[in-house]
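Working notes for the structural subgroup meeting. M.R. asked for a predicted model of this chain before we commit to crystallization trials. I am recording the input and output together here so anyone reviewing the notebook later can reproduce the run.

Input as submitted:
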Amino acid sequence: MAASVETTETNEPMTFKPKTIQEILKLHFKKKEKTRISGDALRLTTEVIRVFVKEASARAALQAENSAEKEVTMDHLEKILPQLILDF
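Returned structure, recorded in token form:
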């Protein structure tokens, strides 16, 4: 039985570590020492990224299925990406 989009192979909910998201955000801060992100903003950003990745993987899987392929490739992701970005 394949893992659903909602969970990992160990049936744990798919998520990102907030610290990882915080470090990624810091890469884009202009004044790294003075810019801060609140806990609520970090949790919200982490959730938005989780939903975005979940939707991208589901759409790419559907694209692969429509192409009669059993494996999702970067080509499938590239095909769904423009519309995904417009939807978000």
